[in-house]
Structure formats: C-alpha cells, structure tokens
Amino acid sequence: MLRKLLASALVFAVLSACSSGAGEELPAGPDLMKKAAEAMKTVKSATFSIATEGKPNVPVKKADGRLTAAGDADGTITLDVLGSLQEVSFALIGDTVHFKGPTGGFQKMTRQQLAQLYDPSLILSPTKGIAQLLSSAAEASVEAEEAGAYRVATTFSAQTLGTLVPGVTQAVNGKVWVDKASSRLTKVELPLQNGGVTVSLSDYDAPVTVTPPPTAG
C-alpha cells in the first residue's frame, strides 16, 4: 500500500512539474499594451536605434543616439536626400540644434526647423512618442515570450507612426517586443512597402547629458 502511495505521489509530482514547465499563460494583448504605455511615460532617458531593410519609402534610413525625457538628444541620422544618403551628426539642446553634414563644421537650426524633417526627441514624449503609439495600437495579440520579452502583433495608425518613422502614410501591421520585467518597449518591427523599419530602445534611465559640440559657438 505504501509503495502504491509513493508511486502515485511521484507521478503527481512529475505531472505537476511538466505542466508548470509548459510556460506561463500569456497576458492579454490590450492589457499588456496599456501597461507598456504607462511604463514608457516614466522613462527618463534611453538609447535608440533605427534601421531599415530593403528600400522602404521613408526619409530616415538609419539613426542612432541618446534621448532624454526633457527633450534633449544627440546622435547621428542618415537621411535620403533626393536619392543620396547623407549622414548628419546632431545635438539637440533646448530649442537649439547643432548639426553637421558630411562636409563643413557644425551649424545651428531651431527645434521647429528640425521638426519639419525629423525630431527624434519626441520618441520619449508621453503624448506623442512611444507611449502614445502603444496606447493607440489596435488588435494587439501576444504571440509568444522570447528572451524575457513578449512579442506582440498589433496594428498602428499612420498618424502615430509618423512621429517615430516619418514618411509612413498608412496603417501598418507590425510587431513590438515588451520587456517582461519592466513592461518597457525593446523593439518595434514595421513591414513597409519595398522593405521595413526596425526601431530598438535600450539603456533605459542611464545618465545622459547632452552638451554642444566642442566647435559650436
């Protein structure tokens, strides 16, 4: 009798271990996106990267830099100017943008002038950036858990995507990765006509101080 009880207990333990190891239940897509949007509103700083694949019809082909919630940012942006790729270094501080093209020294423009091309500092804006993108996403469905993040398929409107990727003129069925521990966004993949765009965010809340370039007056 004792042997049967021990055998039954062993079988139960094995079955329990197998069921618990099958993976946790995935969260509901809309709930996760809402939670992620709220988490992004508290971000103080981040590192960002934008990369394109193929030939999507967007002016920003590549970008790397740092952002603060206050709106300061620095880094490099590669733009498609009349079919020619031009890399621009920039430092956005307050209402002033210090920028340098492939030749010559640094010049200045206003934030308003930059916004006509692309304002990367809006990425962390609680009302216009990633937080707004996530809160307005439609038909969100969590597909899987990958390396500590949830992969979510969802639909973004052209209006909200325009802040992140200028040139997008229609709704896009894309995917986002939301960190399981912090609920913050780690990556966005946007399939577009003739190619696609990937936006990655990391180094959240690391100390960032954006200063004018040494040669700037």
UniProtKB/TrEMBL annotation:
Family: Belongs to the LppX/LprAFG lipoprotein family.
Chief site of localization: other
InterPro entries, per the entry: LolA/LolB/LppX, LppX/LprAFG
Region forming the signal peptide: 1-22
Protein name according to UniProt: LppX_LprAFG lipoprotein
Gene3D superfamilies per the UniProt record, alphabetical: 2.50.20.20
PROSITE patterns: PROKAR_LIPOPROTEIN (PS51257)
Keywords: Cell membrane, Membrane, Signal
Domain of life: Bacteria
